[in-house]
Amino acid sequence: MEEKQRVEEIERLAEENFSRGKKLFVYPQVVKPDQHIEVFLNKSLSTLNSEDDVFIMGAFNEWRWKSFTFRLSRKNLKGDWWSCQFHVPAEAYKIDFVFFNGKDVYDNNDKKDFCIDVESGMDAFAFEDFLLEEKRKELEKLAEEQAERERQAEEQRRIEAEKAAQEADRAEAKAETERRRKLVQELTKKAVRSVPDVWYIEPSEFKGKDLVRLYYNRSSGPLAGAKELWVHGGHNGWSAGLSIVESLVRSEEKDGDWWYARVVVPDQAVVLDWVFADGPPQNATVYDNNHRHDFHAIVPKSIPEEQYWVEEEHQIYRKLQEERRLREEAIRAKAKKTALMKAEMKERTLRRYLLSQKHIVYTEPLDVQAGSMVTIFYNPANTALHGKPEVWFRCSFNHWAHRSGPLPPQKMVPAENGTHVKATVMVPLDAYVMDFVFSESEEGGLFDNKNDMDYHIPVFGGVLKESPMHIVHITVEMAPIGKVGGLGDVVTSLSRAVQDLNHHVDVILPKYDCLNLSNVKEFQYKRSYSWGGTEIKVWFGKVEGVSVYFLEPQNGLFYAGCIYGCKNDAERFGFFCHAALEYLLQSGSHPDIIHCHDWSSAPVAWLYKDHYMHYGLSKARIVFTIHNLEFGAHFIGKAVTYSDKSTTVSHTYSKEIAGNPAVAPHLYKFHGIINGIDQDIWDPYNDGFLPISYTSENVVEGKQAAKEALQQRLGLKTADLPVIGIITRLTQQKGIHLIKHAIWRTLERNGQVVLLGSAPDPRIQNEFVNLANQLHSTHGDRARLCLTYDEPLSHLIYAGADFILVPSIFEPCGLTQLVAMRYGSIPVVRKTGGLYDTVFDVDHDKERAEAQGLEPNGFSFDGADAAGVDYALNRAISAWYDGRDWFNSLCKTVMEQDWSWNRPALDYMELYHAARK
Known about the structure:
Layout: H1 2-19, E1 24-27, E2 35-42, E3 55-60, E4 65-71, E5 73-74, E6 81-88, E7 94-100, E8 106-107, E9 114-117, H2 124-190, E10 194-195, E11 199-202, E12 211-217, E13 230-235, E14 244-247, E15 249-250, E16 258-264, E17 271-277, E18 287-288, E19 295-298, H3 305-355, E20 361-364, E21 368-369, E22 373-378, E23 392-397, E24 410-411, E25 413-414, E26 421-426, E27 433-439, E28 447-448, E29 455-460, E30 470-474, H4 486-500, E31 504-510, E32 521-531, E33 534-543, E34 546-553, H5 569-586, E35 593-597, H6 598-601, H7 603-610, E36 621-626, H8 633-642, E37 645-648, H9 651-656, E38 670-672, H10 699-714, E39 723-727, H11 736-748, E40 752-756, H12 762-778, E41 783-786, H13 791-800, E42 803-806, H14 816-822, E43 826-830, H15 833-838, H16 846-851, E44 859-861, H17 866-882, H18 884-896, H19 902-916
Parallel strand pairs: 21-29, 30-31, 30-35, 31-34, 35-36, 36-37, 37-38, 39-40, 39-42, 40-41, 42-43, 43-44
Antiparallel strand pairs: 1-2, 2-6, 3-4, 3-7, 5-6, 7-8, 7-9, 10-11, 11-12, 12-16, 13-14, 13-17, 15-16, 17-18, 17-19, 20-22, 22-26, 23-24, 23-27, 25-26, 27-28, 27-29, 32-33, 33-34
């Protein structure tokens, strides 16, 4: 019955559409998802009216889903109707199609294509989300396949490495066997079966595993008066070390002073080796070692020589393999633990980053997931919107560039917890970051946009990843190949950290003749270009995994044997800045960010804005960082003026210099971002300069071993005393008058003090030489001043000291206190610059630390006089003496705090995005 009705309905539709002159209809007339339909074409009204074959070619949802091609067949209906059946998928909201002859003749509805709406199914927005979910599944599948390929590749590498290692072990075993064979051959020539009146063996014929008696005439040598006699023996040139240890007893059967020991002959022995002594190996003091030649006896019935050496080579090979296996297992285990600790620290830091603004804004859940709902909580009491009757939430995604555009403004409603208001939004599946600001009304009015930075929260689990940003650092220093101060460390470490966030980073550096190129990998000549009346050669290499382009102008400006210190430094670096921008232009590079540093590359800012942004580098934004305002203030001020964003190396230092004419007019774009330390270089768990590796779990044991090693190396008294470490350049900036006072105060408190550092000023250096002479003569067991640079010793001081003193008069950032905490040493610092931002006093800064998601971690003082340093130092030493358990827990706490580049890299990326806004 149903089929009859269907046929009748189709006949009716065919006749009706034919009479109206329509060339297309569909059955059923209302198309729904997940059903079969039949499409009819009146060929006589089509451009295909003279064609023998008719096909339909189409897809769903604007040609974006499941394409298809079917052949149509002629139907016995009124008119020239042709049709085909196909299934409409559940995801369809529209069918798009054309007809053709299977070759090159089409009916595409006058270039508009044909389309049929699908009712009661997805709409276009739901389909977008469906596609994103499909893409997510596809990406997961691709990731699994990639992981499997990597696993197989790693397995193949492991097999090849194992094969190479086995071949190396076999070669080493063969060489060692040959060495032993020659040794045993030499010994065999010297070996005898007995020496009259000295020693002999019973029975005289024996073999491996036999129990024999080794007789010795005590009166024959230096053991004549010994109360005990022992044999310490081995075999085959001591190849297995000490394998025979037996005491001798007096022979009742032999005349004279004969003693004997029962000895089991080693299985593989060809020659026996031994000495006699007056005690076991740990207690012996007098030996008879045959005038330093040892005693050697031939084993008469040893196994055939060739058989022995084949077995010996095999045993050596197996031993080498086992040693290598254990060694590689230890390396893998250590690498795995290192990676795990780094990942855990990175995760803790990201969480702290997300909570760092909790007094203003936070989300529930804290980890925002793509494709889920999130609630934003905002406290206007701490912002420019304090007291406003309404707060409106304005949000988008992917740095305001999401395909759907900004969400409509949403009026926030009171939250349950006090002064907060809240809003809830759906996070799309293709989001990787959430962007938002707050305003006082729907139309806008007064905004809180985080000082023009906007609020950003990362989104996890999305199907899209952030497109890599291209950052170029133009700099005159880079560690470790061309470093004078902290600038070089920052460039390298920041570049690596941003690169680890999946962005693309290049560095452009002068090719000085004094560069340490041994630390450059893949070093190669790249190209040349002409500018400024000279040829400039471009070299490329990798430094700590970062791509570096070295510019070598042939005019000799950088053949000076130094980085700084020439009379024409301003000319040299000005030329370099111009040449670097010219290289970017001529090479066709289009970076998103050009980051320049201090006075030496400050000209980049105005050269770019005045010239190169008009020549084809218009995409870039300029970020400028002040590392030290002491030098080149005019250049620095001009660079700040021209830059899109400027930074300095700590928040407090940015406030301390806010009144400086170089930055005062530009505070709206001036930010402080603390530096970090390289946790691969400064890592007590993988530090080859320390006696034992340690983490926060065994910090007490690790630091105790380091302290003892430090005391022994420097000739200090090995005692359980508090050790104050000072690692610094000896300049007025570093508070040398406070350092001198702290040394004497530490000695008065019965502590030990170790100073490592030198002074560029000969007068200050001589002062400390005289102080060192005085201290070494009066307190030689508790004070040591090492007035030089010593990298291994610095690592040992960081690990072996209980406290690290940093009493700087001013300190833009400071890395010493950060390295100290990485090694579990407690910083004692003056409250200035980056020292204030990173060290939270255990007695006074609990709330300030909590606001940063941290626990107190050191001792600090305000003044720049003796009373100030005494206040912090006395409390520190008393804490060590009076509460050792508490002190040890503090060491564990500071080790677990993250002062690496994990957090600063996130802050810099936020700044880079703000510069591009």
